[in-house]
Amino acid sequence: MKNMKKKSVIVRSTANLFLPLACIYGAYVIFHGHISAGGGFQGGVLVASAILLVYLGYGEGKAKATFNNHKLHSSETVAEIIYVSLGLIGVVGGFNFCINFVFDGVGFDTSILMNHAVGYHVMGGIICLLAMMLSQLDDDKDDKDKDEKEDAA
């Protein structure tokens, strides 16, 4: 059985404070990355930091319940398909792969959609990676606690 030690009120309160800020700022960077510094990659990593805040504030159990790795890993494939499809639009039009062109009458270009696809893909990938690393930390901690109990007995 895992050690279910309750986290400090200060740590939980700080995680609760910074969790929405990290998500909102990450989304802002993704949505405005095509016109300012930053973009999909940086915003995706900022949003992915949410799993660290949940882990630090509430532990591995709550982080696993909040972020479903299998669904995230499966759904990030949609972002890859969108990115490649947008890149192929340029090829079909007789241009280079990933050419940035403006849709007439719509008012935006393909870089906006590609930026969003990259942001979601990076967010899903980093969350899955961090979840695997954090679960490995807890497994190592459980093994160490088990060894200490055996030595004491």
Describe the structure.
With 153 residues, this protein is mainly α. It is built from five helices and no strands. The chain has helices at residues 9-32, 40-58, 60-66, 69-92, 110-152. Helix 2 packs across helix 3 (60-66), helix 2 (40-58) packs parallel to helix 5 and helix 4 packs antiparallel against helix 5. It is elongated.
Task: Give a short summary of the structure.
Helix content is 76%, strand content 0%. It is mainly alpha-helical and 153 residues long. The mean pLDDT is 82.
Task: Please specify the SSE layout and strand pairing.
Layout: H1 9-32, H2 40-58, H3 60-66, H4 69-92, H5 110-152
Helix pairs in contact: 1-2, 1-5, 2-3, 2-5, 4-5
Q: What key phrases describe this protein's structure?
A:
153 residues; mainly alpha; 76% helix; 0% strand
Helices and strands, in N-to-C order?
HHHHH
**Hey, roughly how much beta strand do the residues contain?**
under 5%
Q: Gap between N and C termini, in Å?
A: 18 Å
Helix content: over 70%
- Tally of helical segments: 5
Major sheet characteristics: none
Structural class: mainly alpha
Low-confidence stretches: none
Radius of gyration: 20 Å
Number of strands: 0
**Average residue pLDDT:** 82
Tell the overall outline: elongated
